[in-house]
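Model it.
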Amino acid sequence: MKAVVDKEGCISCGLCVSTCPEVFAFDEDGVAEANGKLTDSNFASAESARSACPVAVISIVEDSF
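Modeled.
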């Protein structure tokens, strides 16, 4: 599983970054991105970030190989 951020809809509020910094960070343009791997230890906080996103631009999807 991995987290994905729809950067075009992101409003850079920082909620995901503060909720789950192991997975989410700001890119060089100040937009959130998912750059960390989902693990058993951070999955719950990543799901919390997804649920709390005010513009609903975070998805948690299966890894594609």
